[in-house]
Amino acid sequence: MSWFKKEAPKPEKVAPINEATKKIRTEGLWLKCDGCRQIIWKKDLETNWNVCPKCGTHSRIDAVTRLKLLLDEGDYQRHDTTLRSSDPLAFVDSKPYSERLTGMQASTGLSDAMIAAEGRLDGRTVQVCAMEPKFIGGSMGSVVGEMIMRAIERCIENGQPLVIVSASGGARMQEGAVSLMQMAKISAGLMRLDEARLPFISILTDPTTGGVTASYAMLGDLNLAEPGALIGFAGPRVIEQTIRQKLPEGFQRSEFLLKHGMLDAVVPRLELKQYVATALRSLMD
Ligand SMILES: [Zn+2]
Can you spell out the DSSP letters for 75-121? Predict the structure, then answer.
């Protein structure tokens, strides 16, 4: 599900030969905003960190862009880049999991659905784990779990705060119970971080669902979300079928969750860095 469709504006009805050339010229340069349905120049959107300049709708960004947004000078050091899933179940769906992983690693340049980064946020050294939604839906498996655990250990060792940016479809089904066990493992790790009196700021972005919502994404000292982000455990259709009721308007969106006490704040993307910096100052200094 993407908020923006990669489509060129509809070519006017002209002779077929011109239609073809028009398509080539405009393809990929323009996007239609799902919020205001207006056509936006792709470059305008990108320079605004994928926030629609006309209506403020937030569309997704990848982990690399996220870190550039949050960390000073967009500069950071990556940790644990060599961790790889061992495919413990030798899982096969439409294709073998091992093959799926190799393909994803090639297309994203990442070893799994997360970048574990260390950098400065408004001058303060922080450990930031940013999930990559393009890597098997940003799903959480053993590697994501281990990356977060190691980030927690670095925080405790160096007295640094932890920031996790979630963008995830939940636990990775190809790793079955191993993936579900990460929920307990990370939760236990976060308890140790809490005992060390170090803050954990959770940032929920579109989408944060399943086992990620049910564990670390909701365990922050501060749980922040971007506007309009889909946040939930099960999908709305499953819930409607189970409780046999129509769900209210805006159900499972950030603003609804804030209103019902599930979040501490909804923070626009362009204000996020400053918000986190201020929060860390009041929590740590
Ligand atoms: Zn818009």
Answer: -EEEE-TT-----TT--BSSSBHHHHHHHHHHHHSSSSSEEEEEEEE
How much distance in Å is there from the Cα of 236 to the middle of ligand 1?
24
Burial status of residue 206 (CB atoms within 10 A of its CB: 0-12, 13-18, 19 or more)? buried
Is 90 exceeded by the pLDDT of residue 28?
A: no
CA of 54 relative to ligand 1 center, distance in Å: 5
Residue 33 CA to ligand 1 centre (angstroms): 5
pLDDT in tens, 139-169: 999 999 999 999 999 999 999 999 999 999 9
Centroid of ligand 1 to alpha carbon of 36 (angstroms) = 4
- Record the pTM: 0.89
Quote the ligand 1 centre to 79 CA distance (angstroms): 36
